[in-house]
Amino acid sequence: MPAPCSACGASPAALRRPKTGHALCRACFLAAFEEETHQAIVAGRLFRPGETVAIGASGGKDSTVLAHLLQLLDQRHGYGLRLLLLSVDEGIAGYRDASLAAVRRHQRRSGLPLHVVSYCQLYGWSMDRIARHLGPRNNCTFCGVFRRQALDRGALLMGADKIATGHNADDVAETVLMNFLRGDVGRLRRGAGTGPAGGEGAVPRCKPLRHAYEKEIVLYAYFQGLDYFSTECVYAPQAYRGYARALLKDLEAARPSAVADLGHSGERLSLRSDLRMPARGTCQRCGYVASQPLCKACVLLEGLDRGLPKLGIGKHRRLRDKLRDGQPLTQEERRRLGAPAEGEPPEEQEPRGELGTDEEPWGRRELRGPQDLDF
Ligand code: SF4
Ligand code: ZN
After folding, report:
1. Most buried one in 20, 76, 264, 354, CB count within 10 A?
2. Do residues 261 and 312 share a domain?
3. Closest atom, ligand 1, to C-alpha of 96
4. Residue 41 lies in a domain
5. Ligand 1 atom showing the smallest separation from residue 234 Cα
6. What keywords are assigned to this protein (predicted)?
7. How many domains in the chain?
8. Strand pairing partners for 163?
9. CATH of the domain at 161
């Protein structure tokens, strides 16, 4: 016979909360999780009445729970928000196509408008094609940079004031670990809060689930019967984040509060006041936020378009300078930048779609890349 719920005492407990250790029944767990999310939204002043909020919807558990909760809490507490779903299609066969199907099912059930932007439309490259050029490593570097811009560009096209993402406490703790290991002080400073400050991108972002444990998000989705896609991306096993995740799981096994502690450390971290942070400007090519003459996406795209996919990653400044000055590269230098071996046939271009939504077209514009979008 299960113990009674420690909150209501009436129903048998259905779970022990990973975050607090409390034994709760289904109804009390759902109520506690929803109330904590509401409190995080209120305490962080994440939204203002009348705002249009684009929910980054991947079809996975986090964004599915986030979309469900925001719609429910908006109705329950009268936030006065206009909610939209915004998805990015990276062009990963067998993964994103299936997860987008889950987003579409959610869209039909919830009635929220859905907009999809794709890497092919924005950049002319799908992740599958990038991976064919690049090999198994560093794909997530391209994907992460492109996704950040894609979300911003999609949100701007939709007229959104803010982007809400489904990052949870485990994601934030992993990010703090990764940035610490890389010595990336800029991202350490920006990365751990719930929002609503603008962060790196063009549209302010917030993370309403930033204090929610991943295990509790899975429990919430299970007890609510939410339909989500849970297969891992084919490129994920090569991702650096996987090592941070494994380290975090070990830390959590030894000390269950490690997830919350790391997130807290990220928020509390202070940097020397005389530390110079990169100045925020705009990309000379596409107009996106950049701290260098070209934004990271344009640097990566230049490498891809030149047939030198590693040009934008790693320490290749000397070779970049050579190219900028019009000097030819040696075969060995080209090989280091990932150029195909001599005699290899050039690959066919992927068809570029139109930047559209599931409901209505954005307009029939020929898109060559980020520089072609109004920004
Ligand atoms: Fe993109 Fe890497 Fe995530 Fe796959 S695992 S969706 S390649 S960032
Ligand atoms: Zn750019």
Report:
1. 264
2. no
3. 6
4. no
5. 4
6. ATP-binding, Cytoplasm, Nucleotide-binding, RNA-binding, Transferase, tRNA processing, tRNA-binding
7. 2
8. 54, 205
9. 3.40.50.620
Average pLDDT over residues 253-261: 88
Could you tell me the distance, in angstroms and rounded to a whole number, from the CA of residue 123 to the centre of ligand 2?
11
Statement to judge: residues 313 and 224 lie in one domain: no
Asked whether the predicted pLDDT for residue 360 surpasses 50, the reply is: no
How confident is the model at residue 275, as a pLDDT? Answer: 67
Which structural domain range is residue 184 located in? 48-231+238-268
Same-domain check for residues 218 and 312: no
Same domain, 104 and 219: yes
3-state secondary structure of 226: coil
**Binding-site residue ranges for ATP:** 56-58, 62, 88, 166, 171
Residue 67 lies in a domain: yes
Q: Give just the sign of the alpha carbon dihedral 238, 241, 247, 251.
A: negative
Tokens for 335, please give them: 């090989």
DSSP result, 152-217: HHHHHHHT-SEEE----HHHHHHHHHHHHHHT-HHHHHHHTS---S-TTSSS-EE-TTTTS-HHHH
Query: Do residues 112 and 175 share a domain?
Result: yes
Statement to judge: residues 124 and 56 lie in one domain: yes
Give residue ranges with CB within 6 A of ligand 1: 90, 127, 139-140, 143-144, 233, 235-236, 239
Strands, E, within the chain: which ranges?
A: 15-16, 23-24, 52-56, 82-89, 114-118, 162-164, 205-206, 281-282, 289-290
Residue 189 and residue 325 in one domain: no
In this prediction, residues 97-101 reach a mean pLDDT of: 93
Q: Is the pTM of this model over 0.90?
A: no
The string of pLDDT tens digits covering residues 182-197 is 877 777 766 555 444 4
